Amino acid sequence: MNPRAARPTFRTYLKVLKDPLILLVWGFAFAVLLWGSGVDVAIQLWLAANYDQEFNTAMRMLGVLGKGTTQVALCLLVGAVWASYGWLHGDINTRGVRRVLFTVPVFLLAGAINWILKWGIGRGRPKEFLWNGADPYVMNPFEMTAQWWSFPSGHSCSTFAIAVWLGLCFPRLRVIFWGVATVLSFSRFLALTPHYAGDVVAGAAVGAAVAWAVWNIRCVYVGVRHA
Fold it and tell me: What are the residue boundaries of the structural domains of the chain, listed by start?
């Protein structure tokens, strides 16, 4: 086939980015609805009124597992062990190992986009509302302090970016990856003060959309390369 005929056009890339963008828009719309309606603020008030130390500690421990750096380190370890096992047996699954290791650039891209959104939106974390009396509906954009980086959640963004990417790479394990991502993300608002529920939904939408977009672009590139 003529390489020029197979070269993807700008319209091709727009087409494969359409569904991830729709996911992002609907995810943000639901997150803003939770914020604007006061539902996620009410959840934090309920958690504060019914505070349980053991439950809160458990949610915070899950939150540690939900850190993107923790998950990326685990993916790197799995990739290294998988490659080493294959090398010892003379049969390295290069394709599978590459896909696991590619979680790193997906995580970095999603994290960068999410941080820009955090910085530009400037929603205060629940502790600013619960402990310092800040208005939960007031934004303080372009602040360089983490207490104003609540929306979207970085943990849920990185968790869903990695989980969606791995789910697309290994479809048989998709339910497991996405289920674990949901539990880890929910821990960020069920633990008192790290995030509101709307933050978690928005972060999950960003991470999932970025991973899906990268996957679709990769499919276009691989399809052209092998045409």
Answer: 14-225
